[in-house]
Design a protein that fits this description.
Layout (H helix, E strand, L loop, with lengths): L8 H7 L2 H9 L17 E5 L5 E4 L3 E2 L7 E2 L8 E6 L6 E6 L5 E6 L9 E4 L4 E5 L14
Antiparallel strand pairs: 1-2, 1-9, 3-4, 4-8, 5-6, 6-7, 7-8
């Protein structure tokens, strides 16, 4: 299916930071453990950094130990598309934003319940939108 948003390479390059362009438009990958959203656990939505489409909920995020933000499922059916990826001498399933076609990462069948899936997504491909009015956890709060 063709993406809803169709921009030229020059338009994408002008809109995105160079590292985001590399991930979203050239199918690059950020180094593990370097992503700014890896440790974000506040309530909210993760959107495509290319077009703003709502892709994942923080409720579905988990620590996979892989070094990239991981989710058990996409927000709703059809917001991401999956394509066979035979690069790097392996067979994987690439995940792209259905709205703009931006490369997000890959999905693997080794995640936790309830889905058993691990959507391993580059932080550079996402923007986080905190849920309005939701309390955020204070890492210094010991509850005492």
């Amino acid at each position: 299916m063709a993406p809803e948003i169709d921009k030229t390479v020059e338009e994408w390059r002008a809109q995105l930071q160079p590292d985001q362009f590399n991930v979203l438009r050239e199918k690059g990958t950020e180094a593990p453990w370097t992503g700014t959203l890896l440790d974000v656990h506040d309530p909210g939505l993760f959107r495509c950094a290319g077009c703003g489409a709502e892709l994942f909920r923080s409720d579905d995020k988990f620590d996979s130990g892989s070094g990239w933000p991981s989710f058990t499922r996409a927000l709703t059916e059809g917001v991401v598309e999956e394509h066979e990826d035979r690069s790097l001498f392996s067979r994987r399933t690439e995940v792209v934003c259905a709205r703009c076609g931006g490369h997000l990462g890959h999905v693997f069948p080794d995640g936790p319940r309830p889905t058993g899936m691990r959507y391993c997504i580059n932080s550079l491909a996402l923007d986080f939108e905190a849920q309005p009015g939701a309390a955020t956890a204070d890492p210094d709060d010991t509850g005492a």
